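FIELD: query
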Amino acid sequence: MRASKIISITILCSILLLIDWYVFQAVDVTFQGASAQIQGIVKWAYWGFTALTIAALWAYNFANPDLLGPRLRKIILSSLLIIYLSKLVPVVFVLIDDIIRFFKWIKQSIFPDAEVAGTIERSYLLMKTAVVAATLPATAFTWGIISGAHDYRIRNIRLAIKDLPKQFEGMTIAQVSDIHSGSFFNKTAVKGGVEMLMQKKPDMVFFTGDLVNNEAREVKDYINIFDKIKAPLGVYSTLGNHDYGDYTTWPSLHAKQHNLQQLMQAHKIMGYDLLMDENRKIKLGDEELAIVGVQNISGHEHRFHSYGNLPKAMQGTDEAAVKLLLSHDPTHWDKEVNTKFPDVDVMFSGHTHGAQFGINVFGKTYSPAQWAYKQWAGLYQEGDQQLYVNRGYGYLGYPGRVGMPPEITIFELARV
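FIELD: result
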């Protein structure tokens, strides 16, 4: 296992070094008019920083996690992400320059001109633009950590449901998803988001999975924050793909199973009613509303495990006038919900985080998430059934958000 990891990290480092070498072409041309001393300082600084980042990558993967500590590990990972995502921008400009130089070389080969024969120089304008352009994503991603990570937004959604009994009209439901407590670095801000939610005084709260990144112990320091989420008709939760501990190494299967039991216990301590392929009913007058919760089910089986059993979860809900489903992964919708269970009125999901990145153009938001998911954020409808994909409360990997703020959704049930 360790040998395989060494090979993988070696390949990754080789790719990163290739990116660094390519970007240095732009840096080198930009400073070619400077003195030899300045050029030397730039060269040593550039490659010295590269050596430092590669060393940090190796430390992140092979040093004792307890020696580095969780805070330093987060700093290393976020720094690496910002550095190399920013370097991809100048790579585009250098590539454009190489394409232009290639066609010039073809032209020169076909129509030789003694006066211009020789090396085809790089474009100083393109190279300088490449260097300047690299600062833009670096600034945006840094600001996304400082401000965007905890810039909680309330999204108010009118949820019109066909044949909704009058007793449930006007009922409010808050949804939170993808807390990822192991990624947090600002406890005060996290608490502020919970306070924003509670100011809305929802009748019910749904939490749609991913309480942690990998281990149940990650939520320990945040239990006394998230246990403040209360509602008169209950707080209902389900599990997400990260809650099962599938993305870390365990000494034994028993240790992994014990971790899951501890995570389930955390839901109980916080006062959340964790639905493990089961349902709960709320009765007002002579009408029932069923809240159905499944363990993680994914339509992307090659990437995520499926644990849930929707037929089992739906048992006993035939008499309910309204059925609301909590299912973490929105790909479950196309996998079986909207094809085999037409009596599910609304499915509530999360999982995508909206890729934690979005660009708004003329009122429409574009995100890398839409390349991977058909339904990636917001409200979707097919016939009388609806799916809502929450953009997430926390973050994973990159500890920030750019143009995709963390979300607290407040739904108001309405009759069609």
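FIELD: remark
DSSP finds eleven helices and 14 strands in the chain.
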